C-alpha cells in the first residue's frame, strides 16, 4: 500500500502539469480511428473492437498494413530513433539510408492520447504490471495485483516493455506487448503504445536506452517539454 | 506450318508473361487507412527539422501538432515551438515550400 502512495506522490507533479499542457494543445481535439477496406463490397468500414476481433479470428493476425515491414522514411532523425504516428497507428524505428521498420500499434482511447518528445528510460523483459491506484480502487481483479503482477503470458504488458521517460523521470507511459493481439490499429489503451508480442520483442532487441521517441497525435494533449 | 504454330505459341507466352508482370508490378493497395487525413510522419518531422534550423530553436521544443492535405501533392503542417507556433507547407516529395511563424 505504501508503494502505491509512493508512486502517486512521485507522479503528482506530472499529473498536475498535464492538464496545463493540455491547454496549450490545438483546439481541434479528435482521435482518428482506423478504417478497413472490404474488397468484396469495395467499401471502407470503421475498424472498431468488434470488427478487429472478427478480423483477427478469421485471419489470425492484424491487417497487412499493420504487419512489420521496412519502408522508405525521409528523415533527419538519427537511426535508432522511434517515431510514433498515433493517427495512423504506426510506430517507425529509424534505420540508415532513409528507411525505417514500420510496426502496427494500438494507442490511447479518446481522452488518453498524447503527443510529445520523450526517451526510452529503461527496458524490461516480461515486465511486472502494477495497476494504477484508481484501477485498484474500482476493480477487485486489479486490486489483487496492487503490489504488482509478475511478468508472464497473462500479464497485460506482454513480453517486453520500454519505459518512456522525460527529464530523467518516468512518464508513466510505456511501449509494451499485449495479451490482446487483435487490438492493433485501435484507440484502446490508457495512453501506452501496445504492440503484438513478436513485434515488441523485435523492437526491444534493436532499441537502446536513451533512444529519442517522438509521438505525433493530432489534437492530443502535449506532454511535458514541448 | 510448324514454324507458324511455334510463332503463335511464343506470342501467347509473351502475352501471358506481360500480363503477369503488369499485375505484379502494380502498387499494392492499402488495406487500412485513418479516418482523417494527416501528413505522413516523415514529412511532418522534416518540417520540424527545417524549423529548428531556420529559427535556431531547440529541436526538443518543436513538435508537429496538426496537419492536413492541401491540393493533391502538398501538406500543411502546424508546429508548436516552445510557446510559439509556425506553419509549414511541404510537398509530397519532401521539399519545404514555405515556413512561417504565426
Automatic annotation (TrEMBL), chain A:
Q: Which superkingdom does the taxonomy of this entry point to?
A: Bacteria
Catalytic positions are 176 (proton donor/acceptor), 192 (nucleophile)
Ranges for domain L,D-TPase catalytic: 80-216
GO cellular component terms, A-Z: extracellular region
Gene Ontology MF annotations: glycosyltransferase activity; peptidoglycan L,D-transpeptidase activity
Name the pathway it acts in.
Cell wall biogenesis; peptidoglycan biosynthesis
Segments forming a coiled coil: none
Q: Which residues form the signal peptide?
A: 1-29
> PROSITE patterns, alphabetically?
LD_TPASE (PS52029)
Q: Name one GO biological process term.
A: regulation of cell shape
Which UniProt keywords are listed?
A: Cell shape, Cell wall biogenesis/degradation, Glycosyltransferase, Hydrolase, Peptidoglycan synthesis, Signal, Transferase
Per the record's keyword annotation, is Signal included, yes or no? yes
User: What family is this?
Assistant: Belongs to the YkuD family.
Protein's name in the database:
L,D-transpeptidase
UniProtKB/TrEMBL annotation, chain B:
Report which superkingdom the organism of origin falls in.
Answer: Bacteria
Q: What is this protein called?
A: Lipoprotein
Source organism per entry reads Flavimaribacter sediminis
Q: What is the lineage of its organism?
A: Bacteria, Pseudomonadati, Pseudomonadota, Alphaproteobacteria, Hyphomicrobiales
Amino acid at each position: 500500500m505504501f508503494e502505491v502512495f509512493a508512486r502517486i506522490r512521485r507522479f503528482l507533479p506530472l499529473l498536475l502539469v498535464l492538464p496545463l499542457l493540455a491547454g496549450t494543445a490545438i483546439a481541434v481535439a479528435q482521435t482518428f480511428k482506423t478504417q478497413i477496406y472490404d474488397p468484396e463490397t469495395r467499401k471502407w468500414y470503421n475498424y472498431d473492437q468488434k470488427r478487429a476481433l472478427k478480423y483477427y479470428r478469421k485471419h489470425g493476425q492484424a491487417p497487412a498494413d499493420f504487419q512489420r515491414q521496412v519502408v522508405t522514411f525521409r528523415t533527419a532523425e538519427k537511426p535508432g530513433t522511434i517515431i510514433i504516428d498515433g493517427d495512423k497507428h504506426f510506430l517507425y524505428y529509424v534505420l540508415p539510408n532513409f528507411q525505417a521498420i514500420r510496426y502496427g500499434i494500438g494507442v490511447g482511447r479518446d481522452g488518453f492520447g498524447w503527443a510529445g518528445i520523450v526517451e526510452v528510460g529503461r527496458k524490461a523483459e516480461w515486465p511486472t504490471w502494477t495497476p494504477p491506484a484508481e484501477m485498484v480502487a474500482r476493480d477487485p481483479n486489479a486490486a489483487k495485483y496492487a503490489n504488482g503482477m509478475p511478468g508472464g503470458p497473462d500479464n497485460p504488458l506482454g513480453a517486453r516493455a520500454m519505459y518512456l521517460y522525460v527529464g530523467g523521470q518516468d512518464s508513466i507511459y510505456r511501449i509494451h506487448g499485449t495479451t490482446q493481439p487483435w487490438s492493433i490499429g485501435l484507440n484502446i489503451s490508457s495512453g501506452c503504445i501496445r504492440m503484438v508480442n513478436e513485434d515488441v520483442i523485435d523492437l526491444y532487441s534493436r532499441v537502446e536506452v536513451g533512444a529519442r521517441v517522438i509521438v505525433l497525435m493530432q489534437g492530443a494533449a502535449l506532454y511535458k517539454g514541448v | 506450318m510448324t514454324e507458324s504454330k511455334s510463332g503463335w505459341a511464343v506470342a501467347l507466352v509473351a502475352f501471358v508473361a506481360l500480363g503477369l508482370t503488369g499485375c505484379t508490378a502494380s502498387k499494392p493497395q492499402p488495406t487500412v487507412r485513418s479516418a482523417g487525413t494527416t501528413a505522413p510522419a516523415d514529412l511532418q518531422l522534416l518540417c520540424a527539422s527545417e524549423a529548428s534550423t531556420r529559427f535556431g530553436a531547440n529541436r526538443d521544443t518543436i513538435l508537429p501538432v496538426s496537419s492536413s492535405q492541401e491540393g493533391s501533392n502538398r501538406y500543411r503542417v502546424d508546429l508548436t515551438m516552445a510557446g510559439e507556433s509556425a506553419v509549414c507547407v511541404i510537398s509530397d516529395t519532401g521539399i519545404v515550400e514555405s515556413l512561417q511563424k504565426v
